Amino acid sequence: MNGKVLNYYAGGNTAKGFYSLHDSVLDGLNRLFILKGGPGTGKSSLMKAVGEEMVKRGLAIEYLHCSSDNHSIDGVIIPEFQVGIVDGTAPHVVEPKAPGVVEEYINLGVAWDEKKLVTHKEEILQLNKTISQTYQKAYDTFAAALKAHDDIEDIYISNMDFSEANKLTEELIADFYGEDTIDKQPKIKHRFLGAATPNGAVDFIQNLTEDIGKRYFIKGRAGSGKSTMLKKIAAAGEAKGFDVEVYHCGFDPNSLDMIIVREKNFAIFDSTAPHEYFPNRDSDEIIDMYTRCITAGTDERFAEDIARTTKPYKDKMKEGISYLAKVKVLRDELEAYYVEAMDFTKVDEIQKQIIEEIKQIVSK
């Protein structure tokens, strides 16, 4: 039987720039291969090949998806054996903590023809410059969208019953954990459940919660306390010794979108746009923070203000996504130069060596 595949992001294009959670995602690995090499050198294909091989062997794997290319991955982890492979090139540079002992650099640059690349030096330099500038435009635009989003939040915050929100949070914590504790050091993993990508907002909520027995769908508005509640639920789980998966918002990484505690078989997540879902299992449950914590009639009373602030937020988000789409086109042009200069038979040999080494590890 094939192994299970878990999908998420370790980095994202956010209102705070490129934001990396790789340190948390990769923490605790006993063996980590860090791939180096330019775009188009086969890093993603190599990691997918390793992942597919492990899945065929019945092992569970985790794919770290690329927020700048919907068809690429930034890493693959085999959690049972604490082994991983990651793209260690910018912007997600991974610094080894115990080089040669835990981490090993794999340089795919050995497979390119430097003379071919040099003939396109000016084009490559110009593309890199334009890509960097376009990324910055995307980040600046997302930052402007966040400011507009804050304006929307202010309307609801001013009509928020914080004591009721605290009461709801305490009720959920009691329901989730009760008096249960585990006498161990909990593992806390910080990840992104989704990201702003060249194809728009993407999330993996359904995949991540597929095997969870009880799912809670938080409904509400911007500023209705969803993220604050999730932070408190995560902290309570950690204090009680449970392993907690903490999923940050791909737009504002300071906010949380989901908590999963697999030892208690529950997931609770922000189920509003752009990752809006509705219950489709008998065990699914909605938590309506608007009804519970916001003054009745707020939507109607402030309808004009909400519409006025929502438009610039949505417009800026679309503009930011358009810049990511432009980056993808530019990156494809850049990759073409490297693909032309690559000897992929050498990459295949490196791939085989890595797979063989990992096979030895997982066979012990």
Description:
The chain has about 375 residues and is an alpha/beta fold. It has eleven helices and 16 strands. The protein has helices spanning about 20-25, 45-55, 115-120, 120-155, 160-175, 205-210, 225-240, 290-295, 300, 305-340, 345-360, and strands at about 5-10, 10-15, 15-20, 30-35, 60-65, 75-80, 85, 105, 190, 195, 200-205, 215-220, 245-250, 255-260, 265-270, 285-290. The chain has a six-stranded mixed sheet, covered by helices on one side. α4 packs antiparallel against α10 and α5 runs parallel beside α7. The longest helix is centred in the last third of the chain and has 39 residues, at about 305-340. The chain is globular. This is PRK06851 family protein. InterPro entries: P-loop_NTPase (IPR027417).
Features:
45% helix; alpha/beta; globular; six-stranded mixed sheet; 16 strands; 22% strand; 11 helices; 364 residues
Short description:
The chain has helices spanning 22-26, 43-56, 114-118, 121-157, 162-177, 205-208, 226-239, 289-293, 298-301, 303-341, 344-362, and strands at residues 5-9, 11-14, 17-20, 31-36, 61-65, 73-78, 83-87, 103-107, 188-192, 194-197, 200-203, 214-219, 244-248, 256-261, 266-270, 285-288. With 364 residues, it is an alpha/beta fold.
Number of strands: 16
**Mean pLDDT, rounded to whole units?**
96
Q: What is the H/E order?
A: EEEHEHEEEEHHHEEEHEHEEEEHHHH
How far apart, in Å, are the first and last alpha carbons? 20 Å
Strand order of the largest sheet: 1-5-6-7-4-8
Which percent range describes the beta-strand content? 15-25%
The class by helix and strand makeup works out as alpha/beta
Radius of gyration: 22 Å
Q: Give the overall silhouette.
A: globular
Low-pLDDT runs of 5+ residues are: none
Helix % is 40-55%
Largest sheet: 6 strands, mixed
Number of helices: 11
